UniProtKB/TrEMBL annotation:
Keywords: Hydrolase, Metal-binding, Metalloprotease, Protease, Zinc
PANTHER family in UniProt: METALLOENDOPEPTIDASE OMA1 (PTHR22726), METALLOENDOPEPTIDASE OMA1, MITOCHONDRIAL (PTHR22726:SF1)
Start and end residues of each Peptidase M48 domain: 71-248
Coiled coil ranges: none
Naturally occurring in which organism (per UniProt): Aquimarina brevivitae
GO MF, one example: metalloendopeptidase activity
Protein name: Peptidase M48-like protein
Pfam family, one: Peptidase_M48
UniProt cofactor(s): Zn(2+)
One Gene Ontology term from the biological process aspect of the record: proteolysis involved in protein catabolic process
Any GO CC annotation of this UniProt entry: membrane
Length: 255
């Protein structure tokens, strides 16, 4: 009896792992905005729901929204200009742009589905509208690139393999299980893809794309002399990003 029970558990475990690999191999989605084929197991509606549910927590962690409504409107205006003059306008996502009160953390990030944030600490380091557009355009790139959805699918795959748990599909369970590291943990290729898309969005909206290079200089300075070497980090070195940005500008302005 014990031996047969063990065999049954092994068979179930193998079946679950096989299902996980089968699901990963068959869940291939073509992204029309990046022309990449991705392993994604959720709809745009689920991405939007995850973003909306996660947004209040992100705001709270960064001191809430900045109290200056004029600055909020300014950020919103730039964001909407980028969306309305790019392929983002044709996407199903709901874009909202938020200036966070955090005056210490130099950062900007996007949640799946279109919730986009920039801290006042970063905003205060930028010197013109074009640079702000570069930051927001980059974050729009993360949304259209579906980078969070891609990481969630990978997380769910390994969770299934490791624990034998069924893959969760509803947004509420996903929000509680994936954590911020999955939502915001963009890797090198994600960052470079978003830089490239950000350049395109800036050009389409009439902004100077070379100002994105100045944003990279701000980030480089903020990191300080003890910045982790690129090969030890999930993010590209700002110098590497600058070279890729220059290549993107050249490509999009060639015609």
């Amino acid at each position: 009896m014990k031996r047969s029970g063990l065999k049954l558990r092994i068979l179930i475990g193998v079946a679950i792992i096989a299902f996980a690999f089968f699901k990963k191999c068959t869940n291939k989605t073509h992204n029309p905005y990046t022309d990449r084929v991705q392993n994604i197991d959720m709809t745009s509606e689920q991405e939007i729901a995850i973003g909306l549910q996660s947004a209040p927590t992100m705001m709270e962690q960064h001191g809430g929204l900045h109290p200056d409504q004029k600055l909020q409107n300014y950020i919103d205006m730039i964001g909407k200009k980028l969306v309305n003059n790019s392929m983002a306008r044709e996407s199903p996502y709901q874009y909202d742009f938020h200036l966070l009160a955090d005056a210490n953390t130099i950062n900007a990030f996007a949640l799946p589905g279109g919730q986009i944030f920039i801290t006042y600490a970063l905003h205060s380091k930028l010197t013109n509208e074009d640079q702000i557009a570069g930051v927001l355009g980059h974050e729009i790139g993360h949304v259209l690139g579906r980078h969070s959805a891609e990481r969630i699918a990978e997380h769910e795959f390994w969770s299934t393999v490791a624990t034998g748990a069924s893959v969760r599909a509803d947004a509420g369970n996903l929000v509680s299980s994936i954590g911020q590291n999955i939502l915001l943990g963009n890797g090198r290729e994600d960052e470079l893809e978003s830089d490239k898309l950000g350049v395109l969005f800036m050009i389409n909206a009439g902004y100077n794309p070379y100002e994105m290079i100045e944003v990279m200089q701000v980030l480089k300075q903020a990191a300080g002399p003890n910045r982790t070497p690129e090969f030890q980090s999930t993010h590209p070195d700002p110098e590497n990003r600058i070279e890729k940005i220059k290549e993107a500008i050249k490509m999009y302005t060639a015609n």
